[in-house]
Known about the structure:
This protein has 269 residues and is mainly α. The chain contains 10 helices and 2 strands.
Amino acid sequence: MPVPQSALAVRVASAIVLAVPTIAAIAWGRPALEAWLAVGVVLMAREWHMLCGGAGWSAARLTLLIGALAALALATGDRTEAAVAVALLGVPVAYAMARREPGAQPWFTAAGLPYIALAAVALSWMRARPDVGLLNIVWVFGVVWATDIAAYFVGRTLGGPKLAPRVSPGKTWSGAIGGAVGAVAVGVGLALGADADPAPAGLASLLLSAVAQAGDLAESAVKRHFGVKDSGAIIPGHGGLFDRADALLAAAPVAALALYLVGANALWR
């Protein structure tokens, strides 16, 4: 179904408004990036808590907020292992708090802590790497954004068989392939610009695009579980912040883990 031009204009304008401070924070690095991530953490803790049936500033929401901000603060101080520990060990605390709140679903609520915190920690860690920090985080955002943009426009243009009709009826195989192609183009382009081998960068971008699209589908499945179309209404044309960042929330921790295991500058040697 074609998207009305007015709706598309709102969607594009909202994406630009959100992208400008994000790009500025990425370029600036610490502490601007962590400050911008902290804003996202606060908004997503509220959004996730409400999505999972919670209401108001309950103990469960405060646990999500404080746990995710504490993990980000530790990551900012280069205490990455401690940050990851806080994100994981806080899950039973969030679960216990959510059990005391009428209407909230404890397991879903508790899962929000690592879901939010690990992505923020991963982005902070990647940006802080000497020499290649900026290139690595530009690669992650570039792959995620290229996947999203190419999938949207290719899927809308070509249509065809649905990718996961029970989870997200609007997504098509043509869009998924288009998104993957866009991601590979970003990886190869960055590798050529960095005088690196484009083959591993292209392959890594293809795999990260698949993770990003899986993250998008996972958030769609959560929304379907709760019977809502959008995770919120803070971003005109997109819905909630999770609707805009779902792919990044999945891709960032996976990219950071891969770079940690193989070397933070492995793609650009």
